Amino acid sequence: MYVHTYICSYVYKAYISITLFSLMTEDPAVHAERMILKVIVTVFALSAVSPGVAGNCSVVVNGVSGMPQVQRPPGGAVYTRWGRTTCPAGATLVYAGYAASTGSTIDGGTSDTLCMPQAPQYLSTDTTAKYTDRLNSVEYETFGTSSTPFNNVQEHNMPCAVCHTDTKAVVLTIPAQHSCPAGWNNEFFGYLMTEYGSAGRSRRDTICVDANAEAVPESGANTSPAFIYLMRASCAVTGLPCPPYNDQMVLPCAVCTK
Q1: Disulfide-capable partner of 100 in 57, 131, 135, 242 (CB 3.0 to 4.6 Å)?
Q2: Which pLDDT tens digit goes with each residue over 126-178?
């Protein structure tokens, strides 16, 4: 027997109670059909009392010759695709924007890299606040040869895209990998980037920038905003094991969902 019907939260609670009672008291050979009939009766009863109930249902019950199974709506996951203004196949664009952070030579400020929407909104029109922090654009700083990653966007500003997938529930960024573990979906892969490690520079979070990074149009001039650099492992005594790490090669990354 197969029953496919929508029931409301109140019906669902009654359904669970009936199920547990049936499991404890009924013959296993007949309890499944009786439970399904009880669910149907409960739906009709609630609909008769409150006609609006039947129209607000969200829980799906499937009974297949045995214990009915509850199918819950799929979850969702949100991530930022740094360096791009579009989302990978299977994800939808929440908004596109510009990467921003505190200037590289500023003490204090934020250590976060933010994806600022292209069309900002303001709650207040007041312009008299005296002590505020400034957000600057984030500029690619790669300095290498023609084979260096992101050489084509050197000293350009970075765009970003906030993406949503409703078929995944977890987002995992893996450093030093460009593929995802078995059972995980690779949303995009690229290179680890952060602020340059030097005296007088501010701390910055680490982000995974898409391997096919783009630039904000008409942003080619070096304006010395918030810089961002590729990363390598250290093979010093305080560094990582070498091998397998190599201190001459820049580190990749992968953004995975499941």
Answers
A1: 135
A2: 888 888 888 889 999 888 888 899 988 988 999 999 999 999 999 999 999 99
Domain boundaries, the chain: 2-71, 77-121+131-257
Beta bridge partners, 137, equal: 100
Q: Is 247 left (phi over 0), alpha (psi -120 to 50) or beta?
A: alpha
54-72 per-position pLDDT tens digit: 444 444 444 444 444 545 4
> What is the Cα gyration radius of the chain?
27
CB 41, CB 47: distance < 8 Å: no
Q: Are 156 and 233 in contact (CB under 8 A)?
A: no
The answer to which of 54-58, 108-112, 214-218 has the lowest mean pLDDT is 54-58
Q: Work out the pLDDT band at 105, boundaries 50, 70, 90.
A: low
Closest CA to 70 of 34, 16, 30: 16
Spatial CB neighbours of 148, under 8 Å, sequence gap ≥ 6: 142, 230
Alpha-carbon gap, residue 226 to 104, rounded angstroms: 5
CB burial of 162-197 (b: ≥16 within 10 Å; e: otherwise) equals: bbebeebeebebbeeeeebeeebbbbbbbbbbbbee
Cite the beta strand spans of 118-219 per DSSP E: 136-141, 159-165, 171-175, 185-194, 207-210
